[in-house]
Amino acid sequence: MTRPKFNRILLKLSGEVLMGKGQFGIDPATTGRVAGEIKKAKEEGYQLCVVVGGGNIFRGIAGAAQGIDRASADYMGMLATVMNALAMQNALEQIGVDTRVQSAIPMASVCEPYIRRRAMRHMEKGRVVIFAAGTGSPYFTTDTTAALRAAEMNCDALFKGTSVDGVYNADPKKVEGATRYESLSFDRVLADNLRVMDASAVALCRDNDIPIVVFNIRDEGNLTQVLAGDGTATIVQN
Ligand code: UDP
Fold first, then answer.
1. Sheet strands (E) in 33-189
2. Ligand 1 mean position to 140 CA, how many Å?
3. 207 C-alpha vs ligand 1 centroid, how far in Å?
4. What is residue 103's three-state secondary structure?
């Protein structure tokens, strides 16, 4: 099956991707490699914006489990995403890719505030916009942020870069013989509770007709291959 080609995409990078082989934090070699993938895609003419997660540093739900008030813990999680965004910006600028970070929680001396029209303009000028601090509200995730920003930025698709090459019927790291889906409908993902992204993110993409492409960002050259409709991935669409 050939997948559609896309021009403007939102790339979601979870914190897990940025920590590379480590158990915590940011691995500069990994951010450098991911930046290289983004650069390649830009050179081929694609427009990209990025939402970064924060799970490699802090997750609100984990903080709440240790007794921190949930909303405060979520704000800590959002701040973690800002650190990741700055790390990605640095990695991109080191290889000559113009980048802007926009935070949903204004932080004037660190980065720009999130302003949709300004973000659009950056993208039109060929800059990569990295969205930090999630939606700016607790009780959300950066998956939902990714779906929201993809809709706001009129993206053709949401690319979820992970460490597996698509969506499987069982965890391929644990279950031998688990099979990968080529394509899935949003309704199937929600009905079967398949772990693609959280349910609110999937519903937002479904309602706004934005396909989700799940692919392995760790394989070199994969982002551009999947963008071109080749390579291994799972597409979730209406
Ligand atoms: N978060 C939040 N609101 C948002 C986005 C994120 O409160 O709109 C917090 C939440 O605590 C979350 C943390 O930021 O656990 C890090 O984001 P996420 O867990 O989505 O990161 P990922 O799993 O992609 O690394």
1. 47-52, 99-103, 112-113, 128-132, 157-162, 183-185
2. 7
3. 22
4. strand
Beta-strand (E) ranges in the chain?
8-13, 47-52, 99-103, 112-113, 128-132, 157-162, 183-185, 212-216, 233-237
Q: Classify 10 as helix, strand or coil.
A: strand
How large is the ipTM?
0.99
- Give the ligand 1 atom nearest the CA of 17: 25
Model confidence, pTM = 0.97
| Blockwise average pLDDT, block size 10, the chain, 238 residues | 85 95 94 97 96 97 98 98 98 98 98 98 96 98 98 98 92 90 96 93 98 94 92 95
Domains and CATH numbers, the chain: 8-237 (3.40.1160.10)
31 is in an annotated binding site: no
Q: Ligand 1 center to residue 44 CA distance, Å?
A: 31
